[in-house]
Amino acid sequence: MIETELCTFTLEACQIAADMGITRVELCASPYEGGTTPSAAFIRMARRIPHLKLSVMIRPRGGDFLYSDKEFHQMLEEISFAHDCGADCVVAGILTSDGRVDEIRTAKLIAAAKEMEFTFHRAFDMTYDTNEALEALVRVGCCRVLTSGGRNTAPEGIKNIHSLVKASAGRIAVMAGSGVNASNVKLLADTGVDAIHFSARNLTESRMTYKNPSISMGGVQGIPEYASIGIDPTMIRNILNQLI
Fold it and tell me: For position 213, what pLDDT does the model report?
């Protein structure tokens, strides 16, 4: 049966994933930046949830995937911490300035992961040539790649995803993600991917009775100050039902 992975930002979402039979969760912080490394407490507490495979995002900041030496060493430290916490997998991606997989640094991250699985995330979709990038990931021994087929969403990139599955030839697992919902998940699964990644997000409104309209703590226009990223169990159930 095809694997399922839920992108989660809260412990509540992790518990829902375990209760609903999701294969694996990806722990992240900073949803508006596309996901960064979660807190230490989040990793530790999620690990205590029974019957849940745990994948930890390793991304020191938002923005591009060209990292300084200090940022790279931070990633190595974060992988070591995730390993000590008992994570099953880590997720990361490093590119060179010309838009290719940084094979040297990626190989070092994979070595640091030891027995944990290693997923190369959607930095893959930002590469100059995804076919070339796929071969680079095979060379360095990457377990899995998360991709939307080089497009903004997986449904838009479905033809490319199908091509990547063929090119992978079982040498690396291909996981489709971005824009996945109940209306398109079966089509994506039919490409032959090994796993489906989705977030099933909703906005959870604040329970504050007083709301100051004059202040934005993050200082970024358009990000809701009095709502947080939550999870929609009904959306999850509808997606899973399409995969039966």
Answer: 83
